Amino acid sequence: MFMRTTAEAWDLPGPGAQPLPTPLSPAAPGEALVGTDTRRLEAAIAQTTALLTGRLAEVEQPFSGTTPARLAEAFAGLDLDRPLPSLGTALQEISRLYLRDAIYFHHPRYMAHLNCPIAWPAVAAELIAATVNSSVDTWDQSAGGTHIEQALIDWTAGRIGLPAATADGVFTSGGTQSNLMALLLARDNYCLARLDHDVQRAGLPPQAGRFRIFASEASHFSLQKAASVLGLGAEAIVPVACDAHYRLDPAALAAAVDAARAAGQLPIAVVATLGTTNFGSLDPIAEIAPWCAREGLWLHADAAYGCGLLVSRRHRERLAGIEQADSVTVDYHKSFLQPVSCSALLVRRRRDLACLTYHADYLNPLSQTRENTPNLVCKSLQTTRRFDALKLWLTLRVLGPDALGEAFDAVIALAGQAHGLLAAAPDFEPLHVPALSTLLFRYRPPGAPPAVLDDLNEAIRKALFRDGRTVIASTREGGHCYLKFTLLNPATTLTDVEAALAQIRQAGESCLRALHPAAAGAQPAGAA
User: Fold this and answer.
1) 93, 110, 427, 525: least surrounded by Cβ within 10 Å?
2) What is the β-pairing status of strands 343-347 and 327-331?
């Protein structure tokens, strides 16, 4: 039971604040709602802002170094059936349970995954979106929100180079959902065009078990998940060999498609990855696209990472050919400095989205479509959907696309400099020249037995994470463990990279002593 006064519940600040006599109780549920009394909202925002700005000012490293077991202890005994005395008390609890040990992507020595720092206008937009709480599935739940999202879809399609008269798209929760939708469109449109079969109405055709989709060996695992969800099975995704730069090899693609057809399988689509997770590599889509058109294969461009090139004034040409794709995934929350979630799927032909359209009389009746009411639910897997487009809108209106492009250019340049450091060091081994801002390498000190290198590098990553001053990732390639820099923060400098390498060396020496004491004494000249 809520038996506190409203002032107590919200900790209204200020020496002259008057207590509000209405109790925050089940008898007056409206007292807890946004809009009932703007003083409460203002007080909550003020306290939360003070907490966040204070915490951000205190952050000295990207992670605290805590462990799952240690953090779990803080949750022991919590009773979610009993509210805390005030918002201030609840915020203190959030600080202890979450903010103290959060992973801070804005810190320049966070270099692990495809998580970007965020632009401040996007935070303002998140506040607006949460306060108004529009759902952009139908126009009568969002009004201007629908038009803002559509304007951003049109803008992105224009940046890609899709035909303005026919292109369309919709915001999604992320690259996984976008890729799922793209493969759904490829499957259903193939069935309609080639088999005269309506999957929406009749389900999968008998031939579905023979459908095949081709993507590079370095493509994202969400493709296998999508194929599984779509009833095709993960084995429907055919991995195609890459060239020496970890890009899909067009000759290998043609050979794989020919082999599939010879085996009685039915190729339906090709995925060109424009920014692989491990390497940042860009498949040669300009060469692949016309071949796909001749072969009658749907071409999906997974540009979840590489979409930052759309606003780059230095490197936009690296995406040449993307305008020929049938569908495109973009993740603004990777390369446009946006909070999660902020992504979209774009299509070349609006009519292809009909595979996603269902009409409900209580939500989006067919009559509204005939009246040209813009209900975005007609082209989305989701029904209720958050107004995620607003944060990108406000960022573009305040900072402009050139600022986002310059940020992406900066991390590309930094990755090149980092590669130079690694290539010049006798105790590091870079695996590739970075195509974007991701770099795989390993610590390999002279004298270290090859048999311990995998365990050594994984131990280094764990040691750095426990320390918390630098956060990096690791992965496996060719059966071996590599460390990974993913540089998405334009505030990260070469000095930060040098500090990370110094810490890797220090951790490496310690880990090597534990793994192979006899080899731990060897240290290259100049590596200290």
Assistant:
1) 525
2) antiparallel
